[in-house]
């Protein structure tokens, strides 16, 4: 079948065979299928869905579009972690060195920002000199030597996902469970980890807005992972408000460093410690999650985690001095404080997705596939749900390159924060395991 016929078939709700999915995925990865046809197929798949078997075939084809990394030469159980996307979710920058400091090798492939959500690679690249494009051999050597490596999908590793990921971001086809599953699991399988912990976000700032949607995604991730021979575990964590207080690439690196120094936001620290406990159990260095939690707390308080962070950054060409002096990180040339303009009250709601879009308008994210990100742009919040505020209190500080960007960001931010006379309880950090 031609690519046009394959697009027509999915447009009309028909189910593809494994061979047809191979034709689409591998044809696109090899440059035979152009962007505009893949964009049309992605929209057809988004609107009509993919069956359970199609999702498995899609994921398997994406893995086979490139090389699968063999980590068997590295002793121990290699554990990977992935988040389905959120706002101020700086977890990987904290969790990777934290878990590695406890003796579990971290071999991770990450992605860039999608829509209103931040990307780990964009955050890492805000560190002067940092390289995220490593060859498979460099990736393997670094995990063995340093204990942690976080890289982009190179042309050799899952190239189909790298190309499709960027296209989905700008064609409104991101929140599709089969496409999300294919993207996440293909990266994890190609990256060579033995066990995988997935943090499925649920709430206003997540792609899965309800618990039912998030539960369905978690089930598909574990099912498809198992079909491809991987041990996959999922947690569902809250994204009804940003996880941390900083939204933006270099700003989130600052917050990660603060967290590794035991000075970060409570919610971010708590999530990292809980996920670390699970990863240490999966990695076989802790007999249970209680012991794993204790080991992770010790790695933070002793400074072991920040020392691994420095070695990791230096190994990938970055300036390790940022761990001691965060002023070395870029910061946008203009800033503005946003304050409460109404009556005294309580923060009763934050639209995390809109806060993420405010950061994008400030320059911290991409509106189109080819947009350049300003690594020093973004915002730092001062309030969370349940906080009491009075007129003149600071809600956030915005950072951008132009006054126009500050105006747009402020307008979007103000619309995202609800203040009322009655206090409400903040949402629970974890929804389900």
Topology record:
Elements: H1 3-11, H2 18-29, H3 35-48, H4 52-64, E1 79-83, H5 91-101, E2 106-109, H6 120-125, H7 136-146, E3 148-151, H8 159-169, H9 177-191, E4 195-202, H10 211-227, E5 231-238, E6 246-247, H11 249-260, H12 266-282, H13 289-301, H14 304-315, E7 334-339, E8 345-350, H15 352-364, E9 378-381, E10 388-389, E11 394-400, H16 403-416, E12 417-420, E13 430-432
Parallel strand pairs: 1-4, 2-3, 4-5
Antiparallel strand pairs: 5-13, 6-9, 7-11, 8-10, 8-12, 9-11
Q: What is the level 1 CATH name of the largest domain?
A: Alpha Beta
**Radius of gyration over alpha carbons?**
21 Å
Oligomeric category:
single chain
Which series of helices and strands comes N to C? HHHHEHEHHEHHEHEEHHHHEEHEEEHEE
